[in-house]
From TrEMBL:
Coiled coil stretches, renumbered: none
Organism expressing this protein natively: Herbaspirillum chlorophenolicum
Protein name: Aspartate/glutamate racemase family protein
First and last residue of the signal peptide: none
Key words, A-Z: Isomerase
Top-rank lineage group of the source organism: Bacteria
Pfam families: Asp_Glu_race
Transmembrane segments: none
Family: Belongs to the aspartate/glutamate racemases family.
Length: 484
């Protein structure tokens, strides 16, 4: 079941795929809104352009898919709140659309299923008048699954399917013929469904719904799917196709740490196939001014650059933002209130994880840049959980900075040699002060110390906490909760 989402009064209707039928949905939507008394508050965009697809006009061709996608992107740019897609054929590739757009699409098939359950609760044998392509796609079987339902179709005559011929054939409904042979073909197909024991007949083409009232008297109901869809949109609460959860990542701070963080998201995601992984939008911006230089008073303020990057992620449909940079979290409080999606605070979730793992712990060592230390962000997070921060001595802190920023430091691409000597010296200093747990408080440090724990002199085991791994695990957990 797709989630229920509060209605927006801003809709974009995609026309052009079936001009008469989409206009019928638009007309019925306006009537439904007028009946609700909210037509003056409705902001409805009806967009129709000529669609000239190559090959079969009754198939989900590439041209059709790109036409619909471009229309949705245009609605996004214009600030439309939700998409109305009055085309059964386009709903056969609805998953492809909703995986690549931030706009909710009102699900025509969900609307039809809800109507059947509410208005025809005893109907189980569902007759469908649709095209040969939609029939072959199994669209109706997905929404009306066995054994609760038995979906049936007209028995096909020789040659082209009667319903497809009535709509797409020469002189068919798509060409404006609303009487004569097209209606005769549809009436014969409907009578065949009745003969097969259908309890109810559903149009599987919006053009069929357009002329459903003129098919003739039948012993079973034939649903006006266009009216059902329009009413669903107008009702104020309706089922939407849910877009996949997306993690937004502020990348480039620094670049190697971004790649490392991405690997940790993949590694921590329970997946059996590619499609089980989480959508991730990385905005790689290595031109964000250096956070440490700014915090120690030697560089430009990165606030606007960080905020601009976060806004791009927000506008790109991210559900949350991850910043795999410890020092950047000194700026999170400045920008969070201006964003509509949360930044997952890496420092806070790291300290929460430490407290949960080591409930009796009193002190925690911190290896970090001088900017992160000077900002006090870790100290405050630790104190909130009753923990004391241990820091390297000033001389050892210089070696930690050299391991990160030095000519042969990790930011310059080195992971062996002098940078290893320097970071081990800083770690040794913290252990001598009594640290049993040490936070690797710069996102490049796990590249130098890629271990969950380290045996120190005398057999002492020191736990090394990687905040980027903790952040990745928390983001994956949020994604999992959102899809339950």
């Amino acid at each position: 079941m797709a989630p229920l989402i509060e209605s927006t009064r801003s809709f974009g209707i995609i026309g052009g795929l079936g001009p008469l039928a989409s206009a019928d949905v638009f007309f019925k939507l306006m009537k439904a809104m007028a009946a609700h008394g909210n037509i003056e508050q409705a902001d409805v965009v009806f967009e129709q352009h000529p669609f000239h697809g190559s090959g079969s006009t009754s198939a989900a061709t590439t041209e059709r898919k790109l036409y619909v996608f471009d229309m949705i992107r245009d609605f996004e740019r214009r600030g439309v709140g939700a998409v109305v897609l009055p085309c059964f054929l386009s709903h056969t590739f609805l998953d492809e659309l909703k995986s690549n757009t931030t706009l909710p699409i009102v699900d025509l098939m969900d609307a039809l299923r809800s109507h059947v359950r509410r208005a025809h609760p005893t109907a189980s044998r569902i007759g469908v008048l649709t095209s040969d392509y939609t029939r072959g796609s199994g669209l109706f079987e997905r929404y009306f699954p066995a054994p609760a339902f038995d979906v049936i179709y007209p028995r096909m005559p020789q040659g082209r399917d009667a319903v497809t011929e009535a709509v797409y054939g020469a002189g068919g409904i798509k060409q404006g013929a609303l009487t004569g042979k097209p209606l005769q073909l549809l009436a014969e197909a409907a009578q065949d469904l009745v003969a097969q024991g259908a309890d109810l007949i559903l149009p599987g083409l919006t053009e069929v719904a357009l002329v459903a009232h003129a098919i003739g008297t039948l012993p079973v109901p034939i649903v006006d799917a266009n009216q059902v869809y329009a009413q669903c949109v107008a009702d104020g609460r309706r089922e939407m196709s849910a877009k996949p959860f997306k993690i937004g990542v502020v990348g480039g701070v620094g670049p190697a740490a971004t790649v490392d963080f991405m690997q940790k998201i993949v590694r921590n995601t329970p997946a059996e196939r590619d499609q089980d992984h989480i959508k991730v939008h990385v905005e790689q911006n290595p031109q964000i001014p250096d956070r440490t230089e700014n915090l120690v008073g030697k560089g430009p303020d990165p606030t606007i650059a960080l905020y601009a990057t976060c806004k791009k992620l927000e506008e790109g449909g991210a559900d949350l933002i991850a910043i795999p940079c410890n020092t950047a979290h000194a700026y999170v409080e400045r920008i969070q209130s201006s964003l509509s999606i949360p930044i997952v605070n890496m420092l806070t979730v790291t300290v929460e994880s430490i407290r949960a793992r080591f409930p009796d712990l009193k002190q925690v060592g911190l290896l970090a840049t001088s900017g992160t230390i000077g900002s006090g962000v870790y100290r405050r997070a630790l104190e909130d959980k009753g923990l004391e921060q241990l820091l390297p001595t000033p001389a050892m802190q210089e070696r930690v900075m050299n391991a990160i920023y030095g000519r042969e430091g990790v930011k310059a691409g080195y992971t062996e040699g002098q940078c290893q000597d320097d970071i081990r010296a800083g770690l040794d200093d913290l252990v001598r002060q009594g640290a049993d747990v040490v936070i690797l408080g710069c996102t490049e440090l796990p590249l130098l110390l890629p271990f969950p724990q380290l045996e120190h002199g005398g057999g002492k085991i020191v736990a090394l906490v990687d905040p980027t791994d903790t952040l990745a695990r928390r983001c994956v957990a949020y994604a999992g909760m959102a899809t339950e």
